[in-house]
Write a structure and sequence with these properties.
It is an enzyme of class 6 (ligase). The structure is a single chain. The protein has a three-stranded parallel beta sheet with strand order 1-2-3. It has a three-stranded antiparallel beta sheet with strand order 4-5-8. It folds into four domains: about 150 residues, 3-Layer(aba) Sandwich (Rossmann fold), CATH 3.40.50.620; about 110 residues, Rossmann fold (3-Layer(aba) Sandwich); about 40 residues, no CATH class; about 80 residues, Orthogonal Bundle (Arc Repressor Mutant, subunit A). β11 and β12 form a beta hairpin. The protein is elongated, with a radius of gyration of 30 Å. The protein is an alpha/beta fold. α5 packs across α6 and α8 crosses α10. It has 18 helices and twelve strands. The structure holds glutamic acid.
Length: about 400
Amino acid sequence: MVRTRFAPSPTGFLHVGGLRSAVYPYALAKHSGGQFILRIEDTDQKRQVKGAVASLQQTLKVFGLDWDELHIQSQRVKQGVYQKTADLLVASGHAYLDEGAVRIKIPAGEEVSYHDFVLDKDISWKTDILTDMVLLKSDGFPTYHLAVVVDDHAMGITHVLRGHDWLPSTPIHLLLYQFLGYDRPEIGHLTDIMDPASGKLSKRKGSASVNELLANGYLPEAILNFVILLGWAPKDNRELFTLSEFIEHIDPAGFQKSNPVLNKAKLDWFNGHYIRQKSDTELLQLIKPYLPEVTLPIIPLIKDRITTLADATSLASFFFIRPIPSYPTDKSYLVTTLEALSTVSWSKAAIEAALSNLCAARGFPRGDFFMSLRLAICGSKITPPLTESMLILGKDETLARIKL
Ligand code: GLU
């Protein structure tokens, strides 16, 4: 049975790279009916951020990444699991005490290697370049190196997938597997995600914070689809993947060897796509947090015109807030429109006929004329279709806005 894990340290909130480190192992496990484990690596107590664990769990749920088991390393510390393993290493001569801390004893003149199943190559290190890292601190807490090996073994992890940052730690882990006589899981390191402007993405870069993207009106489906393709590609050039479709299609051969660039325009494209997949009633609920007054008839007018849910605010607020009047160059446009519309019945056909007739009768240039009207009624040059907007506003409100 394939068992994978996502092992975040609660030192910050989920970022795009972290979400990828969760969704790839999740899909890999579920592809073959396996299990996905969430392991909170909170042994570095000083670096913890308050609320990070709860936020991580909540964010994973938003994306449908449910875990089969949850383990919290600080609780395992209390059970003595790391201490016991450190003692074993000391007893077998592979580790020693240094002022209360336990350090690995790196053997001289050896080589360690493994086959990386993501990068699809053998990687090796001479042990002479390694140093005797601390495995267990004097306060009894393990370092990452000891905890990750003990836990991947104890939890029966078959495939370790993690960010490229962790590659330099791998030789230490390989030695520990060897010293402890553990079977080694498959290990794979994902490529770094690059920021188009400034090199490697990091947790600190707000633009890649998942919660921020959600708050800015990106749909989970879009963020997930975007992240799926940041380091993995199918054999064909297919781009649209829901989580269950990704589970079906994931194949380690599709892991990319070159660093993907975070292309925000692509995320926008996915978001627009998934917004347009929603029914009007679904979208109504999704837009409400951004524009509480929004009503169902407005949705079809803006659905094709928004990239994020938050765009609804700029595009549709005019329905609820009368715009500050901006006066057209030719005042006769609005004066005559007011006259023409005051007698029409308030239907799309009647309004359009009245406005067209007016333009023709007066010889108004249509572009100018309709732009003036749009500005008076909606307060902006970029708006939903004008007549439909007028119908929603109603006759009284529309005429009040045209009145100079
Ligand atoms: N706790 C590490 C992190 O925060 C996990 C690294 C690993 O997956 O082995 O990314």
